[in-house]
Amino acid sequence: MPYTGATAGYAAGEQTNTSKLDYALETTFNVAPGGAYQRLRMTGESLAVQDGVATPDEINDIPEDAETVLTSRSTRGSINGVVSYGTYDDLLAGVLGADWSASAKFTSTDASAIRLNSNLIINLGDDGGFKASIPAAGIVHILDTTKAIDYSTHYSIDYGGHINIGSGFFTEYNWNDGTLTPGATLTVNGITNDKLGKTFTFRKALAGQWQHFTGNMVSQVQISLQQGQAPTIQIDVVGSDMKVSTVDVSGSVNAATSTAIMNTVDGFLGCKIFGTAPAGCIRSASITLSRNGNAQDTGMGHVGACGVQFGSLQARMEIQYFFKDYTQFLAWQAGQKGVVSVSIQDASGNGYEFMMLNGRIFNPTNPISQKNSTIVTTVSVTGNPLPGGGTFGIRRIVAGV
Q: For residue 3, which of 15, 168, 242, 280 sits 20 to 30 Å off, Cα-Cα?
């Protein structure tokens, strides 16, 4: 008869394939919350303890070091993954210090038109219901297929209840004053950086117990889109402490998202720099969101941090494309500022538009590196705050919305 069943005792140790990482937003800093946790998709992680120690130069008649003592503790590491819709939204909100806005959509009809005025505002033939349903500031997408308008920008609601969108749209479309075509839409759906402080507990399940990494702020997020590779994301966190526990503090664990991995072939929706797509094909785009000047506050009486400083958001992009003309170099030369965006979606039509709201190009290069090769331009884009605030935004692209 054939042999059946598995062989016991073959594993040298715990296996990565069966190890899990999940997280929850902390209601109190450095305290592992109960309730629901969210399972993470990842390609790897490096969360680890960092103990601070001191060994005094004690004088003694035996040539040996004195006892080493614990002086502090922190945790840090990275979570790596591939870009998929909805998977890392909580952690993106953490680095941006904001919450995602709920989707709101307004469709123009003959009776209720969308009018874009030359004083940089949108007026709606609307009873106020749409404007009443949207946040005071965020990302708005303007779509009018008849007039070939497909534009995203930061907005704010002014004291008169108008939707203020700044000058970028009017410059890009050479628009002074007019009404969009019936059927055109305004959609609010995304996030812009703000001033919320968010810390997370990460739980690593190993050997029937849990490692609780508490007090973690998201210090940096890097998103890389590159020709010939799957889009990747790296999330760096800095925390206060780690404890090994036999107690499962979670009430439940939500399943990891099951959305498709995005790709840079049919999933890449394009790049715009100040409203213009580079003439040559895009080779790569990288986005770095950092909390500049973040720190942990430590004191005596406990080993980990007793508080955290979130620092300030620093946003950067680096875009590479085949060089064909000087459009972006001339924008750099003129010191131009404006929206710089990169968009990607999955096979279902869900995705993201990553937006520098008021970017400026620095250090453009187009080196002649070697024979028999096509010249590649690299532009570095630095985010600058808009008047009243706002450096970086992400628009959710939702299929059918």
A: 15
DSSP string, 106-146: EE--SSS-EEEETTTEEEESS-SHHHHHS-SEEEEEEEETT
pLDDT in tens, 289-301: 999 999 988 888 8
* C-alpha span between 237 and 75 (Å, rounded): 8
Cα–Cα nearest to 234, from 120, 82, 32, 75: 82
Distance from C-alpha of 271 to C-alpha of 193, rounded to nearest angstrom: 21
Sequence-distant (≥ 6) Cβ neighbours of residue 111 within 8 angstroms: 125
pLDDT at res. 399:
84
Which of the residues in the chain have pLDDT under 70? 1, 111, 127-128
CA-based nearest residue to 288, from 225, 336, 350, 238: 225
Residue 222 identity: Q
Residue 159 has what pLDDT?
75
Q: What pLDDT sits at residue 120?
A: 86
Structure tokens at 44: 């790897």
Number of H helices, E strands in the chain: 4, 28
Q: Quick check: helix, strand or coil at residue 92?
A: helix
Distance CA 188, CA 203 (A): 34
Tokens, residue 189: 């759906």
Backbone angles phi, psi at 344, to 5 degrees: -150, 150
Q: Pairing between strand 307-309 and 295-297?
A: antiparallel
Cα separation of 113 and 117, whole Å?
A: 12
- Cα distance between residue 315 and residue 96, in whole Å: 10
Q: Which pLDDT value is given to residue 388?
A: 85
User: From CA 223, how far away is CA 319, in angstroms rounded?
Assistant: 12
pLDDT at 281: 96
Judged by DSSP in three states, 78 sits in strand
Look at residue 19 in the predicted model and tell me its pLDDT. 83
Residue 332 has a pLDDT of 97
Burial (CB < 10 A; 0-12, 13-18, 19+), residue 40, is buried
- Ordered alpha helix ranges (H), 269-362: 327-333
Exposed/middle/buried for 235, CB within 10 Å: 0-12, 13-18, 19+? buried
d(CA 224, CA 282): 13
Element spanning 85, H or E: none
At residue 81, the pLDDT reads 96
pLDDT given for residue 202 in this prediction: 97
